[in-house]
Amino acid sequence: MGVFVISFPRTLGELRQSPFSESRLRTRHVKDELRENLVARLRQDCPIFPGIVGYDDTVVPQIINAILSRHNFILLGLRGQAKSRILRALTTLLDPQMPYIAGCEIHDNPYAPICRRCHELIAEQGDEIAIAYRAPDERYVEKLATPDVTIADLIGDIDPIKAARGGHHLSSEMTVHYGLLPRANRGIFAINELPDLAGKIQVGLFNIM
Ligand SMILES: [Zn+2]
Fold first, then answer.
1. N or C, where is the chain less crowded by C-beta within 10 Å?
2. 121 burial type by CB count under 10 A (0-12 exposed, 13-18 middle, 19+ buried)
């Protein structure tokens, strides 16, 4: 069992005074984070994907280039060629802790929230707003595509019950039930068997990319 000697900032005000400062995190997107941590690992000259064998001269350099270029990418290969394993290994390039606004369904950046709930919360509570943290493995979302996957599953949909309970208008963004992709916000999102998705859903994903 580990001994916890570090206590992480619990409010936005404390966060500002910590190494998770606004100047460092405000514009740091997940692709910047992967890139920065990859560069650090390349400098140390240690293996990028420990446990992935046989791709040092082929696949790995291309993945390194993709991450350095902040790209989304597709892995093509047969069953058992370690595609999923490589994807999961990407989490080792994430920060050990990522602060977000506690309770936010899409894990908003405390300095640059995008959801309505967090905007309102910050207006009300300011620097007192609570901060929570995510570990790398919590920031990896993988979905096996099948032909019956819907836009609601992946991206989201209006939730009439949420609207009724909260007393919101149906057009209010507070009534959205988020799908897998927004929930993977600031993390790594992987889709297995992409061609099995209906064309409409592939287009929906393209629009977001
Ligand atoms: Zn939020």
1. N
2. buried
Helix axes 59-68, 30-44, angle to 10 degrees: 130
- How far is ligand 1, taken at its centre, from the CA of residue 76, in Å? 34
Contact (CB, 8 A) for 190 and 205: no
Q: Sign of the C-alpha dihedral, residues 175, 177, 178, 179? A: negative
Tracing tokens 């990522």 back to the chain, one arrives at 98
* Token pair of 70 as six digits: 């902040």
E strand segments, the chain? 98-101, 131-134, 140-144, 156-158, 176-178, 188-192
Confidence of residue 38 (pLDDT cuts 50, 70, 90): very high
- The conformation of residue 179, written as its DSSP 8-state character, comes to -
> What pTM value is reported for the model?
0.89
Residue 146 C-alpha to ligand 1 middle, in angstroms?
Answer: 29
**C-alpha of residue 37 to centroid of ligand 1, in Å:** 25
How much is the CA Rg of the chain, to the nearest whole Å?
19
Q: What is the pLDDT of residue 6?
A: 67
Q: For residue 176, how far is its CA from the centre of ligand 1 (angstroms)?
A: 12
3-state secondary structure of 40: helix
Q: How remote is the CA of residue 114 from the centroid of ligand 1, in Å?
A: 6
